[in-house]
Amino acid sequence: MAVVLYNTLSRQKDPFEPIEPPKVRLYACGPTVYKFAHIGNLRTYVFVDILRRLLGTSGYNVRHVMNVTDVGHRTSDADEGEDKMVVAARLEGKTVWEIAQFYWDAFRQDMACLNIREPDVWCRATDHIPEQIDLVKTLEEKGFTYTIEGDGVYFDTSKFPDYGKFARLDIEGLQAGARVGMIEGKRHPTDFSLWKFSPTDKQRLMEWDSPWGVGFPGWHVECSAMAMKHLGDRVDIHCGGTDLIPIHHTNEIAQSEAALGHTWVNVWMHGEFLTLAKTDGDVRMSKSSGEYVTVPMLIDKGYDPLAYRYFLLNGHYRQQLAFTFEALDGAVNAYGRLKRAALDVRAHTSDASQPIDAHLQTFRQAAQDDLNMPRCLAAVWDLLKDAAADKGDVYATLLEMDKVLGLGVAEMTEDAADVSDDQRAEIEAFIAERAAAKKAKDFARADEIRDTLAGRGIVLEDGPKGTTWRKA
Ligand code: AMP
Ligand code: ZN
């Protein structure tokens, strides 16, 4: 049990020590269910899933809680704009409840496709309104709040001495620079809403009674209230994407520690972005940019979602990873090779097969060293290339490694296996013949070849760098 994790709080890798071993209380900020999740969001959840699997295989007993944001997340992080759920309901002509259920179901479907395990506890913000109100009441009693007439109840960040320390925010710079356009009545630009009053000029779709007036909770308050309810007053590990550090997690820490009077979370872990490669630099994949890829989109294009999971494991979770379909194709090939190798060694298993210690140790050391998945994959390939090892033992080792990787080794089937080397050579020959036919303007033959391959479940795609293929 020598797990080392990078803690955003200390900005270094520290040996992991749970508050009450072997228990680990793990909280991960979940999706806002107003749209399909994109594969960038899902990168963060794959990272959390790997963490949870690693802790499980390292002897810990993990309780994993994840929220579903179905109220309070505004279109701007600065507490302005409409609720994202309300906007989606209007655009799609549905109720907010239908929107939440639909996109939550879709999210769970995506998780299943990527072998991401469901948390032990799912908690919906709208199912925890009394808990959120109670937390705001505590903060009010302790003198951390103020009310802006007609707007809402706010957290006064100047009353929390360490506000911004976590994110190393330049508070003075922020206070000076952000006054323009600030909500009228806010005492400091960093103050954030705990409870918003229902708007009088807009559709009122989600609202509840409270001691301060009818309205709805702010986004940040839900995570604190639900984590406290389901994990208690102290959390071992809290996760999310790096974008959550400066505002959402900074505010979660302020309100939780102001209410509790002690440190709330021991280890904060953040996953880096999946980006899109652009000629003038990489950009974060985001819903608002409109340029994003989803799991159903991958499936439509014929990709196995687990090949995307394999693609993710090629990068360290604390480094940005640029997504391109060419890079994904590379992962498809590697994952196909892995499948063929796994099926080959599986055929040799017997009751006497057992994991090979040396290989497993190398793998575990890499995984326990702040989830170093690229090194873990290297350990997988070293194992598969170990000609001296008993094949049955190799398979038993691979199964153990897959408890962390989640690449579905035990479920791999002949059908799902990638094509054989002979078939691969045949496809390449067809592609070459088709290119020659096209050059000779024999389009009938070119089409015939495409159809022949389609009949065998192989899809051709013509791109600037030539023709590529994949299984349909
Ligand atoms: P949201 O549903 O927008 O609240 O985001 C859900 C999670 O996805 C959060 O933990 C975000 O930090 C994370 N996230 C958003 N965009 C990306 C991205 N491009 N790459 C990785 N994680 C992301
Ligand atoms: Zn959160």
TrEMBL record:
Residues 16-331 form the tRNA synthetases class I catalytic domain. Its EC number is 6.1.1.16. InterPro entries: Cys-tRNA-ligase, Cys-tRNA/MSH_ligase, CysS_C, Rossmann-like_a/b/a_fold, tRNA-synt_1_cat_dom, tRNAsynth_Ia_anticodon-bd. The keyword Ligase applies. One of its GO terms (cellular component) is cytosol. This is Cysteine--tRNA ligase. Pfam families: CysS_C, tRNA-synt_1e. One of its GO terms (biological process) is cysteinyl-tRNA aminoacylation. GO terms for molecular function: ATP binding; cysteine-tRNA ligase activity; metal ion binding. Signal peptide: none annotated. Its cofactor is Zn(2+). Residues 424-470 form the Cysteinyl-tRNA ligase anticodon binding domain. Keywords: Aminoacyl-tRNA synthetase, ATP-binding, Ligase, Metal-binding, Nucleotide-binding, Protein biosynthesis, Zinc. The lineage of its organism: unclassified sequences, metagenomes, ecological metagenomes.
